[in-house]
Each structure stands twice: as C-alpha cells, then as structure tokens.
Prior knowledge:
Glutamine Phosphoribosylpyrophosphate, subunit 1, domain 1; 35% helix
Amino acid sequence: xxxxxxxxxxxxxxxxxxxxxxxxxxxxxxxxxxxxxxxxxxxxxxxxxxxxxxxxxxxxxxxxxxxxxxxxxxxxxxxxxxxxxxxxxxxxxxxxxxxxxxxxxxxxxxxxxxxxxxxxxxxxxxxxxxxxxxxxxxxxxxxxxxxxxxxxxxxxxxxxxxxxxxxxxxxxxxxxxxxxxxxxxxxxxxxxxxxxxxxxxxxxxxxxxxxxxxxxxxxxxxxxxxxxxxxxxxxxxxxxxxxxxxxxxxxxxxxxxxxxxxxxxxxxxxxxxxxxxxxxxxxxxxxxxxxxxxxxxxxxxxxxxxxxxxxxxxxxxxxxxxxxxxxxxxxxxxxxxxxxxxxxxxxxxxxxxxxxxxxxxxxxxxxxxxxxxxxxxxxxxxxxxxxxxxxxxxxxxxxxxxxxxxxxxxxxxxxxxxxxxxxxxxxxxxxxxxxxxxxxxxxxxxxxxxxxxxxxxxxxxxxxxxxxxxxxxxxxxxxxxxxxxxxxxxxxxxxxxxxxxxxxxxxxxxxxxxxxxxxxxxxxxxxxxxxxxxxxxxxxxxxxxxxxxxxxxxxxxxxxxxxxxxxxxxxxxxxxxxxxxxxxxxxxxxxxxxxxxxxxxxxxxxxxx
Length: 609
Ligand code: M6R
C-alpha cells in the first residue's frame, strides 16, 4: 500500500527520495509526491501515476540542493487518486509537510473542529487533517506538536513530518503502520519498508506502536507518546541489494518463481534431523512437553497465506491428529471467536504487516492464546508481537502476486506438522521418510522450472480465455484455489478454484468448449476419482490442462494438455503442483500485456482493513 521514505543528511536528498520511492513501487500506488526543505522554504511536488511522472513534474527543480526531505507513494483510501489528494499535505502556511500511511478514523470530527478554528481544508483526505492539527499544536517544538496532534487521533498511522522552521529534523511516528529508521554515517533515513533504504544502510531500528522519533543527520531519539524514552537497539538486516533487483529477469514475479529452489533450501536449512526424522524449530519457543499437549490449533491469514494455512490444516491433522481450524483473519477478528489459554494460534503472513492478520492475532492474545508467527519479513510487527514462530527466510518478495513466500510457508507448515507428529504418533521411520522427501524438493522444483517452455506454449494456447476453473482434491484443493488466485490477480481473467468433486454441484453448468479447466490429477489415493471428474469435464467439451505425476502415461490421452511434476511424498505435492500454475499465470499475464508485478488495484502489503 502507501510507501514512505525520508532522508536527512548532507547529500542531495532528491535522488535518494526518488530511488527510495522506486524501491517501494511494488507495494502498489496511484500517485506520488515529495517535500524538500530548501533555504527558501518547502518545495512540494506531486503527480498522479508513476514515479516517472513525479520526476517529469519536477522539471527545473530536479537539481534542488536540499539535503532533507520526505516522499510518499499513495494508494487511495479517502479521496480519489488525483494531484490534490496526493501526499505530502501541508498546513495552511506551508511550513509543515506530512506524509502518512494508514487511516485517521475520526478525521471527520477533527475536520469540523479545525474548520471552526479557521483552517482551510483543501483535500478529501484524512491525512491533511493531521498537518493542520500539528500546526494547531505547534508552540516552537515540532516533536511536541506531533505528539499533541497524535493524542487526538484515532486510527492507524505511520507518518513522517518536516517543517521549514526545523532544518535537519524529521519527526516520524507510528501506530499500526510500519516505520523503520535507517542509520547511516552523518545521515539517517526513515521508511515504511527497509527496501527503500537498503542501498544506503542495513542498520535499522523498527519503531513500535505509539512511538515518536526525532531524526537528525547524526541522532535519533525515540520516545513513547507518553514521553518515556527508549534506548534504540540498532539491528543489522541480512537482505542485500541484489535480493531486491530483477537480475536479468523480465519481472520480479518470474525471478521469484525461479528462486524457489533456493528459498526452499533456506526455509529448511539447519531444520532437518535425518536420524530422528524430525524437524528442529527452536523459534517456536515451546518445549517438547508443551508441543505434546497442544489440543487445538487455529491458523489465521489472508489471501495466498490463507491458502497455505489450508494446506497446514491437512498436514497437521493428518500427521499429528490435532484439530486445526483455518480462519480468514478479517472474519476471525470480528466474530467473537472461542479462544482461551489452551489455544495455539498461528498467524501466517509474508509481509508481517497485514492489518487483519495482526488484529486477529492481537485478539487471540487478549484471550490468552499462545500466538506463533509464520512470517517472511524479519522484524515485522507480526513477528515481533508473536510469542514465538518460524521465519520462512524467503527473502524480499517484490512481485505483488505471492509465489516464493507461498511455497516456503507450506514447507514450514510441513516441518511444524512433522514436529508435532513426531511428538505424538508418528514413528521415526515415518518422520525420516518425510524429511528425506523434503530435502529432495528444491531439485524437483528445478526440474519443473526446466520445463517452462512447454508451460509457456500452453499459456499461448489458452491466454485468450475469459474464464478458468481450477480443480484439486484433498491437500491439493488449496493449490487449486491458489492457482485461480494467481491467474485472476495478474491476468484479470476470472478464475475459480473448487474441490474437484464439488464441480458437479454447480460449476459444471459453466463448462463448454470455451472453459479451460486446470486439474491437479496426481497419482495419489484419489487419482481415480479425479479422473472421473476429468471425464465429466471432457464429456461437456471442456478443455483440460492436467498437472500429473511423472510416469503417468495413461493421462495424456484423457486430457488436452498435461504438465508433469516429479513424484514425491503424498503430503509434499502442493510445493511441486503449484509451480506450473504460477508459471502458467505468469505467461498468460505477459501475453495479455498485463502489469505483472504491480497488478491494478492491488497492494503488496494490505495495512488497512
Ligand atoms: O503479507 P501477507 O501474507 O499477510 O499478505 C496476505 C495477502 O494480502 C496476500 O497473500 C495477497 O493475497 C497476495 N496478493 C497474493 O498473491
């Protein structure tokens, strides 16, 4: 969603801010803007659309020598995406400029109040109110003015504020919307996401909720909104610049699909005990005794992470025989769920910042549950607020459509299920069989990726279809959901995922010669049933693209297209079956000339409800 970057130091701020914004483009946005602190006051520039338009809009001003400024990419919530509503917003004297991620919920009341005080409101945004509120509270100290304003605000915010009255100072504050300070030498940075500053520093301090930071070129002072001070711990993040670049691939999504052998290796590294047939997951912070006595698990997540949660349910219930409920985080948080101190809740999130998942997790914590995170972004809010958890170590995922995070989440859930199972009823032999199969997965993914040209040819044959159906059974039903989500996200083709046997209870009405049906038809205990479902589709002239197990020679004659994946442990098939579906979606989207990495209307990290 929206992105923030701020710089205060001795270099020219403009190129640093523009590059920072470009690094944040992947989060999704519709307009952009910046404020630079010049000797003669604030220079504000904004534009609708891409960062390139912002650069063009700067014109002669692009050689600004300012060494201090803030910038923003906006994903519209209040007010349409236009020039006026783009950030930064200023007070009426244009002395204070502010960028904001999040939503000010009581902005209408504050707006009326400010109008009564004589302020002129120029935009439809909730954010502008904050700029006036800070001005209203200002008595010579910008930090105190921000503090005063924030005490009146309800909602979520990550903000960066500058003022022409305070050269060399950025005031940053956070509640519910991430902000991180980057420490340089004689310069400091503020951003909503470390990728905006990674080419300058990997030394960071994450702000916590209700904290305000006063950032100057050589210092940053962090205080709670109640004025208590915190001694900031600087952390060194291990992400490198090449991780956030395309490295020769046409799109981040394609790069990330191809990274999966590596990211799965990273997810399992040091976590497999072959002798005992058990996974080592120390980050859970639970003793073996505690693992043995877990009687109920809830997994909550959104989108693709919710699909991996569904696979987690199959894995944990089958291997460990512990009941698992999977809930959309957005539903869980509002439906008075039954949670107590005996409940273990896993929150799955690539970004670690999804507002609904975070709220669901906090709700569960309030009721005494043990809350564990399965998260990619190190240091993110969900990771920091969990009692324990497992990082998936997929590295930065820039493509809005999640790919490598999904397979790593599924792999981590596999390890969790193995651990719980081995604590209970699974034998060493069963554990070993799975652990050995896990180790083979990265090379098997490599072999599927090597078949990309064949998948591309199938994409070519079907890319003009207007509807797709995806079918799978058992542990591969969520893979069908994920395949359909990938296609609709990036190619805008309507696609639905269904349990294969459910097709005849409704969706079969849609099937005709124009309806491609992607079926996951692997050699497993439900193979014959799935073949019957395929026959039902073919009898209605539907065109079937099957994902099948290598060596299955009979299927080719019974479908229109077949993509083979290697044989693996029955419970590990999702990590392989999803790869051709990712490639199929990708190539269809490219052939339809869609914006693969930044699909319309979508944001990488959904930090609002
Ligand atoms: O960062 P999270 O895993 O919490 O994000 C959850 C969803 O917003 C995300 O998976 C979304 O559905 C992606 N666009 C999927 O490709």
